[in-house]
Amino acid sequence: MIPIFIPHKGCPNDCIFCNQKKITARQDAPTEEDVVNTIETWLSTLEPAKTETIEVAFFGGSFTGIPIEAQSAYLAVAKKYKDAGRIHKIHMSTRPDYIDEEILDNLKAYDADTIELGVQSFDDEVLRLSGRGHDSSIVYKSGQLIKDYGFELGIQLMIGLPGDSLASCIYSAEETVKIGPAIARLYPTVIIADTALYEQYRSGQYLPLPQEEAVLRTKEMYKILTRAGINIIRVGLKSTDLINSEGGTFGQTYHPAFRQLVESELAKEALKAQLQSANFPKGKSVKVDFYANGKSFSNMIGHRSCNKTYFQEKYPLLQIRYRVNDALCDQQFAISIIKGDSQ
């Protein structure tokens, strides 16, 4: 994915968590020449044989909220690359209340493919407290319109906004399933300096989630979405999403490997359930193999071997080996009791 950042353009709203200048680390919108240079730079580093899908993605603001002439200028650049076969898709993110038929007709004219909606929550009170400027009803309308036009729909959700709870997070995931996007992103709330949320944090009005709670909520949402066949393309912010080298984040929620924290917990949960249903001889040492495919092996081990430590302490009589089985799907785990080796 080739990201083109268009900071704080087209969005008059003041969401309490947002300081777009810090997130994108730039103040001016890119010119068409800047877009060309960015695409060329990225294409020079990509290996087409190893890259199934190359997308140009307009991020950083509410793309469909900028003047339609500006949208068209950016889209025209991306379309030239798509028509030439040098990229495969055109992708953008925007707000649910910046979608209508005129906008979608224009996106269709430039052969755009994917529209992600920054939904954040389906809980209307959470949206109100976050200063979103709309309620959840617009999400259903916009999501359906996007799908009716034949675009790939994405939904972004945030965890731990003011007024949020485990129940409202689960509700948001369940409502997302009802809308049926192809892709989703899950973002635990990160407090960024110079935002209204930061001021609430400083005054004690807002308490950020402890990391353990953020992982728990995200894990439950992850399960709901993946069971419905929704591809979760991002869990947590990358360091490059924050870009500001001085950091400017507060609380415990941000973690550079947040996705692995979540997926490690899912692996532990799956393996633990299988162990609990196994019939082990009581009071005897038993050899057990844990399996994952190569891609999910590190999640089975856990971030910084946290799962290995957990199982060693929880099941001291088990002699566990961690092994690869590429017949398993991603995030699928299995155990096998080694017969005849019990002592």
Major β-sheet annotation = 7 strands, parallel
Structural class: alpha/beta
User: What is the string of SSEs from the N terminus onward?
Assistant: EHHEHEHEHHEHEEHHEHEHEHHEE
- Number of spatially distinct domains: 2
For the CA atoms, what is the radius of gyration? 22 Å
Shape: globular
Annotated CATH topology of the largest domain: TIM Barrel
DSSP E strands, number = 12
Stretches with pLDDT under 50, minimum 5 residues: 243-247
The name of the CATH architecture of the largest domain is Alpha-Beta Barrel
| Adjacency order of strands in the biggest sheet | 1-2-3-4-5-6-8
Strand content is 15-25%
- Helical region count? 13
Span from first to last CA?
53 Å
Helix content: 40-55%
The first-level CATH class of the largest domain is given as Alpha Beta
CATH superfamily of the largest domain: Aldolase class I
Average pLDDT confidence is 89
